[in-house]
């Protein structure tokens, strides 16, 4: 005799967290699945859908590596920011670090191109 969904839920309500955790592990092993993947794929609700629907309008330019032309990269960082020589050098030495934060898409792309032309590795987030 097969249990209905309501009967299964009633059984799960009576279990402790440890018992439920052991059941999930046994279920995953038996059917060769992962419960976490199904949970991660589900949207959190209407707020999550609204956030996905909005287009991002602020971007961060993150320096991920200075490359071989470190001095050129420091010069470009100084041009893009109001940092002094020491601060720009510290930023380049401490990569990965954000160079610009919350800027428009065009400004982020232009800054990324300038840094890449100087030999740096850059991400726009």
Order of helices and strands: HHHHEHHEHE
* Number of beta-strand segments: 3
Describe the global form.
elongated
Strand content: 5-15%
Spatial strand order of the main sheet: 2-1-3
Report on the biggest sheet: 3 strands, antiparallel
N→C terminal distance: 54 Å
Supply Rg: 25 Å
Assembly type of the shown chains?
single chain
The percent range for helix content is 55-70%
Mean pLDDT: 80
Individual helix count: 7
Supply the helix-strand structural class. alpha+beta
Unreliable runs: none
Q: What does this protein structure show overall?
A:
Strands 2-1-3 form a 3-stranded antiparallel beta sheet, with helices on one face. The protein has helices at residues 5-13, 17-31, 35-41, 46-53, 70-80, 85-93, 105-117, and strands at residues 59-65, 97-103, 121-124. Helix 5 crosses helix 6. It is elongated. It contains 7 helices and 3 strands. 58% of the residues lie in helices and 14% in strands. It is an alpha+beta fold and 125 residues long. The longest helix has 15 residues, at 17-31.
């Amino acid at each position: 005799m097969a249990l209905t969904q309501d009967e299964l839920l009633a059984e799960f309500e009576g279990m402790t967290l440890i018992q439920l955790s052991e059941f999930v592990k046994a279920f995953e092993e038996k059917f060769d699945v992962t419960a976490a993947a199904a949970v991660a794929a589900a949207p959190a609700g209407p707020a999550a859908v609204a956030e996905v629907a909005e287009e991002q309008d602020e971007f961060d330019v993150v320096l991920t590596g200075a490359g071989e032309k470190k001095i050129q990269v420091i010069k470009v960082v100084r041009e893009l920011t109001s940092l002094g020589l020491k601060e720009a050098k510290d930023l380049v030495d401490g990569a990965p670090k954000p160079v610009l934060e919350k800027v428009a898409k065009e400004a982020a792309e232009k800054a990324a191109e300038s840094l890449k032309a100087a030999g740096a590795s850059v991400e726009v987030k």
